[in-house]
Amino acid sequence: MARMALAAQRRLTEAASDDPFLTAKITTARFYADQILPRTSGLAAIVTAGADSVMALPVDGF
Amino acid sequence: MPTFTPPVRDMAFVIEEIGALDRISTLPGYEEATPDLVSAVLEEAGRFGAGVLAPLNPVGDREGCVLEGDKVRLPTGFADAYRRFVEVGWNAVPFDPDFGGQGLPWLVATAVQEIWHAANMSFGLIPMLTQGAVELLSAHGTADQKALYLEQLVSGAWTGTMNLTEPGAGSDVGALRTRAVRDGDHYRITGQKIFITAGEHDAAENIIHLVLARLPDAPAGAKGISLFVVPKFLVNPDGSLGKRNDVSCIKLEHKMGIHGSPTCVMAFGEDEGAIGTLVGRENQGLALMFTMMNNARLAVGLQGVAIAERAAQKAIAYARERVQGIGPGRDAPGPIIHHPDVRRTLMTQRALVEAGRALTYFTASRLDIARHAADKAERAAAHALADLLIPVVKSWGTANGVQVADMAVQVFGGMGFVEETGVAQHLRDARIAPIYEGTNGIQALDLIGRKLIRDQGEAMGGLLAEIRRTEADLAESGGEGLERLRLELAAASTLCAETVAWV
Ligand SMILES: Cc1cc2nc3c(=O)[nH]c(=O)nc-3n(C[C@H](O)[C@H](O)[C@H](O)COP(=O)(O)OP(=O)(O)OC[C@H]3O[C@@H](n4cnc5c(N)ncnc54)[C@H](O)[C@@H]3O)c2cc1C
């Protein structure tokens, strides 16, 4: 997303335009950074918590 | 409400900026892939997808496929559409010109396929399976096998299938029991395969099955599997069709989605044994399958992106139209697109679609470089990066396909749950993609076991270095709003590095 935003910005500057297609790429990338990328911190915590509690309940316990 | 508007400008943007078309079109054989040609191809594909395939999508969902005797009838219009698809040459886009292909890069073929899946995922599965057969035979077929099958598969006159799964062998392919016995210059195949996509249908005059089976003296497990070509109609040396082979569809599955795609139980060798010829060497079957695995998994991840695009388009159109309640700062009831929660949903859909498309096309461009670059080190690096990203493209793309289609149903409210609006079909169709071509759980094992631990994080290190370069570019560009992007990206990449180190 960041690379698309960079490319969009380069194209906007080169053409000295305000093409809404290109500005939307930047807006969408910012949304991604604010609203989706932070999911990674929750996911990283889950991964590094390890598997102990995942496998703790014995099969007979289900 | 427009049914489907192929996002050709978005696609061309990603092909040029993320897939680095200017680099890909310097690869030997790909010189013709200029931005103008690519745009023209996407426009034409878009017209075919929107005009011919999309209108058949709800028909396929409603009618499904019908088994009559041992023949399968596709939904109304599918067989005709397929014949037109072949006539126009769409099936041949990525393949070798020596066998009648058009020789376009996978980067471009991937965008073209996105259009088929978005328009009609059930239809898109037919060329997707044929593609796997073409790749296997191109890479490992004997001269005879290539001469007999390749041209017809490249054009799409004949279609292909992949026969791996059996009742006792799904994720654990090594458990399969279908038998192959030597019989002169060929083999006799006996056994049952299940869940075979396009195993039988009425759109092509012949079907070429690629079948995994076990020789009587084969070692147990995954090391004892061989790969065979088993045509529905045997092919004479002059290319004409001969006798019907001993293979048939004995049942169709009744499914949650992709009703337009026949999912077949296939019986091999109910009588004298189906005639097949060996591909590669005996007991090498699974290793050979790996040569087409990257492209097949990429294609399934792409289905997730495609369905997400289609569902998101419907959600936007509905959100503009449906009047309900007064949005913040407004003084009269208006369309639901003014409600922040609906806007958040539409933005999330858009962001996931665009990110998924970028990652998928980027990975396709690495496959092109891995195959065609002149420099060996460049090929190896691209290969390692593609190998690393494939399980991510497959699992993340398909999970997002389900999530975005689910969000589209939510935007429609009660009308989303009612079949008449057609949005529910996308959710039902999308749900298969996290399951087939290696479940997403199996993708996770591949990512951690093969792609991170076995190569000791080398490919991942390369990817993280590229992300760091993007962070530097963001810092340098100094554009407003990009700074926040850089901070979030830096935080995420640091976390990623720490998590990989923990693994
Ligand atoms: C519509 C449709 C079309 C298909 N088309 C084809 C086709 O054309 N050709 C073909 O050969 N097959 C095809 N398949 C089969 C498909 O690839 C399999 O269903 C899939 O590989 C899963 O196998 P399974 O169904 O036996 O599930 P199982 O292997 O029984 O898996 C059940 C669950 O257990 C999990 N699991 C299993 N093993 C492990 C493990 N080692 N570690 C962690 N989790 C595990 C899985 O992730 C899954 O959640 C198709 C299936 C469908 C439904």
TrEMBL record, chain B:
Coiled coil: none annotated. Its EC number is 1.3.99.41. The lineage of its organism: Bacteria, Pseudomonadati, Pseudomonadota, Alphaproteobacteria, Rhodospirillales. Belongs to the acyl-CoA dehydrogenase family. This is 3-methylmercaptopropionyl-CoA dehydrogenase. Residues 162-268 form the Acyl-CoA oxidase/dehydrogenase middle domain. It comes from Magnetospirillum fulvum MGU-K5. Involved in the assimilation of dimethylsulphoniopropionate (DMSP), an important compound in the fixation of carbon in marine phytoplankton, by mediating the conversion of 3-(methylthio)propanoyl-CoA (MMPA-CoA) to 3-(methylthio)acryloyl-CoA (MTA-CoA). It comes from the Bacteria. Residues 283-450 form the Acyl-CoA dehydrogenase/oxidase C-terminal domain. Residues 79-156 form the Acyl-CoA dehydrogenase/oxidase N-terminal domain. Keywords: FAD, Flavoprotein, Oxidoreductase. Gene3D superfamilies: Acyl-CoA dehydrogenase/oxidase, N-terminal domain, Butyryl-CoA Dehydrogenase, subunit A, domain 2, Butyryl-CoA Dehydrogenase, subunit A, domain 3. The keyword Coiled coil does not apply. It is an enzyme of class 1 (oxidoreductase).
